[in-house]
Design goal:
Distance between the termini: 20 Å
Low-confidence stretches: none
Radius of gyration: 15 Å
CATH architecture: 3-Layer(aba) Sandwich
Number of domains: 1
CATH topology: Chemotaxis protein chec
Number of helices: 3
Order of helices and strands: HEEEHHEEEE
Number of strands: 7
CATH superfamily: CheC-like
Helix content: 25-40%
Strand content: 25-35%
């Protein structure tokens, strides 16, 4: 029997790696898959509605999103505003959810997506019921790091 949680984890990580590579040229790898609830200073999230829906969270340090935003827009990092950073994290989550949705289109895990949102602030945690399934990955390289969480 296929371990669906491991398979879903791989799909979400692969799509995130592809999206970030496409928008920035950065090559990321999975650094860890520890299930921690602590998020970074800026988090984009989106609900995944379907038979087996959930919520996607992608968080990173503000400085890492600033770097990605600079590559996405072509603007120098010093010119990137807080609004630009929030828009960038929302767009990244939107692209990740869209890519995963496409890969899961013929499965019970097919979902519809909502509007992406951003949460900013220090010491933000996402707490779920004990029986919730959580997929967790930290992706990074020597320049940037992002945390990916899916709760379903």
């Amino acid at each position: 029997m296929v371990d669906i949680e491991h398979e879903l984890s791989d799909i979400f990580a692969d799509v995130t790696i592809d999206v970030i590579s496409t928008v920035s040229g950065f090559s990321l790898t999975v650094q860890s898959q520890e299930k921690d609830k602590r998020l970074e200073a800026i988090t984009g999230f989106m609900n995944l509605n379907g038979k087996k829906g959930g919520t996607l969270f992608m968080s990173a340090k503000e400085s890492d999103i600033r770097v990605l935003c600079s590559y996405m827009t072509g603007a120098p990092q010093a010119e990137i505003t807080e609004d630009d950073i929030e828009d960038a994290v929302c767009e990244l989550v939107n692209m990740i959810a869209g890519g995963v949705k496409l890969r899961l289109s013929d499965t019970d895990y097919m979902f519809n997506i909502t509007q992406p949102f951003a949460i900013t602030g220090e010491n933000v945690s996402i707490v779920t019921k004990k029986r919730a399934h959580v997929i967790s990955s930290t992706l990074g390289n020597e320049e940037i790091s992002v945390k990916l969480r899916v709760v379903y």
